[in-house]
Each structure stands twice: as C-alpha cells, then as structure tokens.
Amino acid sequence: MKNILSQIIMKLKTNFEKLKLKAKKIKKELRVLYIACQRPDIPWYTKLIAILVVGYALSPVDLIPDFVPVLGYLDDIIIVPAGISLVIKLIPQNILAECREKENEAFKDGKPKNWIAGTLIIGLWIILIALVIEKILKILHFKWYINR
C-alpha cells in the first residue's frame, strides 16, 4: 500500500513538473508573439490573429470567467495555446527567431495589461446578460415589457 501511494505521488510530481514546463513555454511564446505584433514586416492577417490572441491572453478579463466550473479554465487550456500555435505557424521563421532573441529584455518590468481587450470582453458580457434578461422577460410575459 505504501509503495503504491509513493508511486502515485511520484507520478503526480512528474506530471506537475511537465505541466509547469509547458506553461512556461506558452508564456514565453506569448511574449514572442507580443513582440512580433509590433513588427511591420509580418503579414496583416497574421498580425490581426496575433493581436487577438495576445490581447485575449493578456486581458484582465476572460471570455469565460474562471469561476465557471470546468468551462472557466477551458479557454486557458485550449483556446490560448491553440491560438498561439496557429500564429507561430503563420509567422516566418526568421522573424520568429529575431523575436525570440528580443523576448527576455522586453519583459523585464512584467507583462503589459491589455485594457482594450478587457473592455471589449466586459462589453460582450453586458450585451449577453442584456439579451438573456430580455429573453426571460419575453418568456414571462411581463405586462410592462409587452406594452413597450
């Protein structure tokens, strides 16, 4: 029993270390994309996708809040890494190599916040909540709502 428990603990530690390494790699690649977004020599469509991915990842607000069970972390686990992979495939390799070299010095003071993306996401939530409330009011047939 003790042997099995120690094997399980060792596996958990190993998996946790792998997960930490992947998270560090994603964080590093995100910084590289941030630098690449600022370059004029990448195609406009690549820049647009990169700006969306970096903006979303650096946004202080998530599209799906983290407190929502399971789905809250789905965007952090799937959407952001998939977007990063897509943009990395679209950026020419020589430009990507240059951005990777500049990555360390560019983020000495920490990551920048993208308040524009955060504002857009908050706006999306407000619109979504308003639509849900409107739908509920229609279903419940409130008198004051029908007379509008």
UniProtKB/TrEMBL annotation:
Q: Does the keyword Endoplasmic reticulum apply?
A: no
Listed transmembrane segments: 44-64, 115-133
Membrane topology per record: Multi-pass membrane protein
Q: Which residues form the DUF1232 domain?
A: 46-81
Q: What is its main location?
A: membrane
Return the Pfam families for the record.
Answer: DUF1232 (PF06803)
Where does the protein end up?
A: Endomembrane system
Which InterPro entries does the UniProt entry name for this protein? DUF1232 (IPR010652)
Task: Tell me which GO cellular component terms the UniProt record holds.
Answer: endomembrane system
Going by the UniProt record, its keywords in alphabetical order are: Membrane, Transmembrane, Transmembrane helix
Q: What is this protein called?
A: DUF1232 domain-containing protein
Source organism per UniProt: Clostridium folliculivorans
